[in-house]
Amino acid sequence: MRTLKILAWSIILGAAGGAAMLLRPSSQAVKPVRRAAPAAVPPSPPAPSPTPRPSPTPEPFVVRRILDLKKPLHHGDYVWDESGAPPGPVVITVDLAAQVVSIFRNGFEIGTAAIIYGADNMPTPLGVFPILEKDADHVSNLYDAPMPYMLRLTRDGVAIHGSEVRYGYATHGCVGVPTAFARKLFGATHIGDRVIVTNGKSLAMGQSIIG
What we know:
Elements: H1 2-27, E1 78-80, E2 90-95, E3 100-105, E4 108-114, E5 127-130, E6 133-139, E7 146-152, E8 159-163, E9 175-178, H2 179-188, E10 194-198
Parallel strand pairs: 2-10, 8-9
Antiparallel strand pairs: 1-4, 2-3, 3-4, 5-10, 6-7, 7-8
């Protein structure tokens, strides 16, 4: 009998222990699963700047049109015709041998006139000159003479200006053009536009005006 009691208690205790063993895992706090933080992604390198394209080489400033004169220019004559000439840079050419001035816009001749120029003792200089100053009502401080629609070429007084253009007349180094032509020239030019003064250099279609 005593042996049966001991065996019974052993079964009870074993059952209780087994129950305890079964219940222990569920009675413990469940620990959260910790996941490692994702590795930091390095920032993407900046996109390379596009390589700038070189500026296109400008087309040569060439003669694209010469006015069709119906007759030779005489002193006091001029022709002005802007029709068909597109906007663009302006260049003035002066040929002392031919006694002619021409204005080109974007290679198109838009005006030409007979001129007078410097006397032998005060010659008109040759070369390329930018227009330094414009003055529609200029009066020479050296000779107290009117120089209407003056385009100054040099600091010592050489300019293109309106004048009485007659055979045998001369200037003190300036280029004199008919006053009506000077007015148009004044309106078509800007400070910095170039004036090329030569002595016997003529231009043909397709020929470079500068360079």
